Amino acid sequence: MSEESKNITVNIYGQDYMLKTTADNEYIERIADYVKSKMKELEETGLDSNSQQLKIAVLSAMNIADELFQSMNKNENIISTIETKGHSFIEYIDERIKEIESEEKE
Q: For the chain, what are the domain ranges?
C-alpha cells in the first residue's frame, strides 16, 4: 500500500514553499537545508540576497544539478567496472570448468 501524501512547508530565503510529499519531515528539511546552504555559498561570493535572489536560486540549481550529474557519472563508471570485472570472472570460471571437464575425460 502506498504512503499517503501530506503537505510540508519549508522556508527558503524568507519564502514559504508548501510541498505535497510522501517523504518524512526530516528528509524534506535536510533537502531544504542543503538548498539553503548552496544559496548561502553563492551569497558569500558577493551576490546580494535582496536584489539577486533569482540569480542565486538559478545558480544554486545549476550547482546542485552539476553535483547530481557528477554523481550519476561516477555511479555509471562504477557499475561499468563491476560489469566488466563480472564478465571477466565468469569467463575465467567457464574456462576453468572446461579445463576440469577435459581433465576428467582423460
A: 6-105
